[in-house]
Amino acid sequence: MKKLTCWFIIAAVLLISTPSKSKELYLFCAMGAKEPVKEIIKAFEKENHIKVFASFSSSGRLARQIEAGAPCDLFISASPLWVDYLKRKKLVIKEAPIAKTRLVLVSAKGFSAKSFKDLCRAERVALGNYRFAPFGKYAKEALKNLGMWECIRDRVLLANDVAQATMWVITENADSAVIYLSDYVVFKEKLKLVGIFPEKSHSPIIFTAAAITPEGERLLKFLKKKSEIFKRWGFEAVSH
């Protein structure tokens, strides 16, 4: 009996001292990749029995939160620049491009825009805040290169993220917006597609994932295996 009790004690000590595998992960993701990432999270949770808590916002805001110590295992940015920012802070253990998309001009159903030139007639144009939302930076770059920035700069509404800019157009609080093609795909029944910006008019729009922890690296590998989900949501494949 004493021998049996001793074995129970040893087993209990081993159970307590053995580090358990993580049962939850924290994912920070740019708003522009929300829909495919939500779908991938469900698949990951089902396959691995690990809960993933996701936060969606602009890339810059999420990067600043990670820098400030917010719990995060994997960060998905709409621009490699914010991944580079965290690398300089020595917070990234591995990174990889996961998808790319295009930049488009959309308008409200009630605004008769047929070409990029019609943007100059808009009273309110929704763009991302260039300081922390990459889609705003891409948009400003494209509009400048196409010679259209000066005609709209005084009528720009700055959105915190691409979802907000899109919603302003849907609710007709803005006449037009420059957003990602992948976001237009989500709301195409409520938006009018005016045109796709030439690829050479702006920097490549590459969504990049950065593992902050070893657990995040596991989720990163899973993301890369599910590239077909990104394609269904209007993204293009990117070489790793």
What's this model, at a glance?
41% of the residues lie in helices and 23% in strands. With 240 residues, the protein is α/β, with parallel strands linked by helices.
Please describe the topology of this protein.
Elements: H1 2-17, E1 24-30, H2 34-48, E2 51-57, H3 59-67, E3 74-77, H4 80-88, E4 94-101, E5 103-107, E6 125-128, H5 134-145, H6 149-152, E7 156-159, H7 162-170, E8 176-180, H8 181-187, E9 192-196, E10 205-211, H9 214-225, H10 227-232
Parallel strand pairs: 1-2, 1-3, 6-7, 6-8
Antiparallel strand pairs: 3-10, 4-10, 5-8, 5-9
Helix pairs in contact: 3-4
Beta-strand share of residues:
15-25%
Give the class from helix and strand content and strand pairing.
alpha/beta
Q: Which range best describes the helical content: under 10%, 10-25%, 25-40%, 40-55%, 55-70% or over 70%?
A: 40-55%
Instruction: Report Rg.
Output: 22 Å
CATH fold topology of the largest domain: D-Maltodextrin-Binding Protein, domain 2
Let me know the average pLDDT: 89
Cα shape: globular
CATH architecture of the largest domain: 3-Layer(aba) Sandwich
Biggest sheet statistics = 5 strands, mixed
CATH class of the largest domain: Alpha Beta
Instruction: Give the beta-strand count.
Output: 10
Distance between the termini: 60 Å
Query: Helix count?
Result: 10
The CATH homologous superfamily of the largest domain is called Periplasmic binding protein-like II
Weakly predicted, low-confidence segments = 1-20
Number of domains: 2
Order of helices and strands: HEHEHEHEEEHHEHEHEEHH
- How would you write the strand order of the largest sheet? 2-1-3-10-4
